[in-house]
Each structure stands twice: as C-alpha cells, then as structure tokens.
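Input/output pair, single chain:
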Amino acid sequence: MTFDDVLAARSNIAPWIARTPLVTSRTLSELAGVEVRLKCENLQRAGAFKIRGAMNALLGIEPEARGRGVVAFSSGNHAQGVALAARLLGIPATIVMPENSVQAKVDATLGYGARVVQAGVTSATRDAVARSLAEETGATVIPPFDHPRIIAGAGTVGLEIAEEWPEVKSILVPLGGGGLLAGVSLAATSMIPGVDVYGIEPEAGNDGQQSFRKGEIVEIAPPSTIADGARTLAIGKANFEIIRDRVRDIETIGDERLLYWTRFAINRTKLLIEPTGALGLAALLEGRVRPKGPVAVVVSGGNADWSVLCGG
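Output:
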C-alpha cells in the first residue's frame, strides 16, 4: 500500500462521510503539559471512524456483485459502519456479531437495516461464521481491518489531521486489529516526516504490543476488557507490515484507569466517548506516552455501553 491509496480513498468516500473536527481542550492540554487536540471520530456518521473504510471497501465491489450482498464480522463499530454504508449504496448486508457484543451496537446495526447473526458466535468464531455465510450466498466478505481498502479509508483520518495541523509532532491512535493505526501512520508520516505515531491498546489485549516488540504477529486468547472495539486476537497481516515500519511504539492502559479517564474526558469535554475511543487520551494523561510536542489524539468512536460508563 502507498499514500496514493489513501488519497484515492478520500476521493471515493468524500460524498458519504463527515470531515470530523480537531477539537482543542485547555484542560487536557494543561494536564498533559503539551497542546492536545482531539480528532473526533465519535462525531462521524455511525458514531465511529469505521464507516470510512467500510464505504471505501463497498465502493470497490463490482456492480454485478453488489446484488449478492456483503457479509461482515465485528463486535460493533465496523458492523455499524458496514450496515450504514450498505444502506446508502443499496447493498444487502449481513453482520456476524459475537453474543457478548454491546447491545446498543447490535441495535444500531439492526437500525441501519442489516441482518445480524449472533447465535453461537464468539470473537474467535465470527470470521469463520461470516465466511461460511458468504460461501452460501455468494456475498462479498468485508473484514474489519485486514483489507487494503479498509486501511486506506481509515487513513483519511490521518490525512485530515496532517492537513489541518501540520505542526503536530505526535499522534495517538487506539489499536484493535490495526486498520486505524496502519492507515493513520501511513498517511501522517507520508505528509509530515518525523511525526511520531503511537498505538494504544488495553493491557488485557496487548497482542499488538507483543507483536511490535517481537517483530512478528502474536495471537492471544480473546481478551476481557471494557474496550470492546479492541477485543481482537491478532493484528492483521497487511496492517502489521505498515505498523512495523511507520509506528514509533505501542503502549497499553489498564481497564481501571481507562474507565477513569473516559469518564473524566466525557465530563470535561462534553463529548460522548466510548472506552476504546479513549485509549489514546487515557495513555497520554496517565503518562504512558510522553509526546515530543503538540499531540493529536484520535477519539475513534462514541458508541458507548452505558452500563460500563455508569456502573461501579
């Protein structure tokens, strides 16, 4: 993949997605000791960055194949992104979601008109179930992160940051399967040589950190974490190739502190942020990352599970 793929993705999806704001916060900047701006993908259509890659992928399907539909597998935000993109393009969509998915994300996916399959589905089996359904119907599989058009679409987040704030020195990005981190790092480092891009994932799901430090993809058991968008077992192959070359480091944050800083950020910024979307901000405010200058923090989504945010 090249930077030109990200530029092409921007042209493809521009009519369908929002250019989200880069929001300043004096409180967060004072706490971090450096200027902080939030790239608010929680204000994106379907409530997360995922529609960028989903729309780019669906637009790449040949017209004669669209009638057979698409099948995606996801714990939530990719599900909603594909469901909305499919509705906008008039493509039938089936989404395979684990039985422990956040109910609000399931409801939203159904609300966008997709068929949802959950019975007997776990995080470890959703891929196989989706591909089996696609074989039966001839539908096109739209994976959540390990796909060049998904990565390129997600990369438009980094493109927008670099265009709007060329002075940025560090960018913090939530990490699950690696689509967002790969795309943002590809775009940002292409536009701003020397910018540091960090991936942030939950401590319980640190497959990305292990992979980055070891130099090869490490697979883990399904992690238990409030960051439901980062309950991945391993980074995608295409994603890891980019991350290994373009990312400065990968850090983690524990669930207790993640929940604390998620609630703090919601209260101070008045923005609805889900725990996965707050990974970068939590790591910054907890001192897990020490940026060398102005820092952009990608808030990847706002489809929050209120039972997590309000409980305990």
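The first helix runs from residue 3 to 13. Residues 277 and 300 are 4 Å apart (CA to CA).
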